[in-house]
User: What shape does this take?
Amino acid sequence: MTRVVESDVCIIGGGITAAMVAERLAERTSATITVIEAGGRTASLEERAGTRARMLAYGENPFPNDHIPDQTGTGEMYRQMVVGGSAMHWGGAVPRYSPEDFRLRSLYGVGFDWPISFDDIEPYYQEAEERIGVAGEQGPPDCDPRSKPYPMPPLPLSYNLARMREWTERAEVPFWTQPWARNTEPYRGRNVCERCDTCAVCPTGAKYTPDFAFDRLLADGRIGLVDRTLVRRLELEPGSDRIAVAHALDRAAPGDPVEFHAGTFVVAAGHAWSSHLLLLSATGRFPDGLANRTGNLGRYMTGHWYVSGYINLPMRLYPGIFANNSLLSHRFASPGPLDRYLRHDLRLWESGVGRQPRLRDDDGRLLWGDEIMADWRTRTESGATARIRAYYDVIPDGDSRLTLDAARTNSLGDPMPRIDYRAAQATLDLESHTRDTITGRFEHLARAADGTVRSTSGSRLFEHPGGGCRMGDDPATSVVDRWGRTHDHENLFVVGAPTIVSSGCANGTLTFCALSLMAAEEIGREMPA
Amino acid sequence: MGAAPVPLPGETLRAVAEAVLPAELGDDGRERAVAAFERWCEGLEPVAELSHPYLVPETRYSGPDPRPGWAAQLEGLDKECMSRHGVSLAGLDTAGRRKLLEQPLEGAGPGLGSPANGGHVAAALMAHFYSSPVATDLCYGVTIAKQQCRGLEGAGARPAMGAQP
Ligand SMILES: Cc1cc2nc3c(=O)[nH]c(=O)nc-3n(C[C@H](O)[C@H](O)[C@H](O)COP(=O)(O)OP(=O)(O)OC[C@H]3O[C@@H](n4cnc5c(N)ncnc54)[C@H](O)[C@@H]3O)c2cc1C
Assistant: This one.
């Protein structure tokens, strides 16, 4: 028998962006809200000390049952489908994008301008930081603009990072503490960071994970959370372009279909599954997928690439004091006028690379007993290693696409997503300049410490991915407007990662959250106060 | 949960530990390292779901159970020792034990890798010990206490001197 769930707002997806929308609407309106999550619940806070211990000992997944075995695609995608989404595992690095990110075409003649400016999104950055609970240090205002202080003081610099910051000051490159979604003070009922250094799973609850927000909203009776329920298709109202129903499958009772009826639908299903659901929902008047009248759905999939390296430093450091804190610089994300386009961030961590205990020495001789320890000591006493990484901006390409993969279906026969990422030719043309310049900056930093760059490597993994439903004022070149409202369906919103125009050179989730809060503001205008 | 783990012959394992772990651990420190490895072996789940690598859409699993192989390796070492030297491994001096271990460790290294990577039990024991906070502190001669929940206070100070094995 078909079960029908009615609400004012139906949010599809139960990750961090869904949590932002649900929380804001619950606080500022009296709308009834349903959140639908395809996955189930995973390790509770009480269970995380145990799963953490097994992760440390055996590398096991600290969040059991956090995915759906037959629901996965091809291309760079998160595996997690669970209440809380991929932010159950996240590291919680939450930098903002830079003002330049929103005006690439106007400032540098490459890529695209967003329909919003940094000033438009800034209040929502602040709101996201307050909802999440961000601990951060104000960087130099010209490369770290903000209108209000961070909600919490920064994580303390470890002895190692403090020595590294002294070194970067000699190089005259400003570094400051990475902002983190981790408490340095008790915050919203959650604990302070205990420096356990396993942020993928935080046993104290100091790291923000979206399940905390959902649990609070559930306890207050402000949302309904329907988990283990996969939305398979959105259906239009007869004779209208409005969405009427989300058709879903209760994975615990697969024989009984579920229909979600709502006045407003919000797709908060992350960078892959959002476009996927709209493509799956193709229907008579929208044969290529909902919100796809102009053929932009699934296009401009993007993320940033990086160059990373290790630097030998002639100083005594003690790796392990606080591996999950780092130094950040956005100096080169806000570079001023440029002859050739290149924007990137810089991150620095303590590292043990090249100075780990080993079984054989440089001559391949087996080491026994005290010899291993002696060899290890010699290599740690002779200096330290810093890990450095620069995320750089990749210009999105229209043919960087998410499509339905007929060759790969789930057990219901639904085609799974396939993402063929591509960078625009502009990025490929600039790639060697980019890598050479960044490597040069690593060398400049190393020289300031009388150190050397021991190795560098480049990655073309599209990190912090987004796109597929990019925002814009012009329906001919975009899927949603600046508020995340689809151009084609007045009561259908897409929020977060899928709506970005470009992915900047900073971890993206804070921006996805800020965009979701902007959408929630617009949705809230139509809801009873 | 799979079948009950095969226990490793304790005496031979300890004889291996004496040959491969640092003597500066002392008898107590070495015994703690061996006991920790035994506990680790007991808790090991073969073919367990591993942490998802970043942006990899497939699920990864750990390898098959290395413990039966390790138990057999230890038994084999003891037998070989008996037949060559007429004593159990525990009865042989350290140099002799190392000589016996050279051939089984031929393909191992240069790094220590992860203890669960299969390979030889002696390499697994060393990998387990050297990845521990105890080993790090011993190497640096200070108390770093890596991956122990230590609170934020004190993070900025040079770690205190004098780590004990
Ligand atoms: C190991 C790791 C470390 C990370 N570290 C950082 C970091 O330090 N900083 C940073 O900025 N970012 C980080 N990220 C990325 C960050 O986690 C994501 O950007 C963010 O969580 C995305 O949130 P989301 O709400 O957009 O999507 P998701 O978290 O993917 O949530 C979407 C949810 O929707 C559900 N869903 C999808 N389709 C349907 C459907 N049809 N029906 C019902 N439900 C559906 C999914 O099951 C999923 O739970 C990290 C990610 C990982 C995995």
User: Anything to note?
Assistant: Chain B has a mean pLDDT of 94. Residues 10-131 of chain B form one domain. Residues 116 and 136 of chain B are 19 Å apart (CA to CA). The helical segments of chain B are 10-20, 26-43, 67-85, 94-102, 121-130, 133-140.
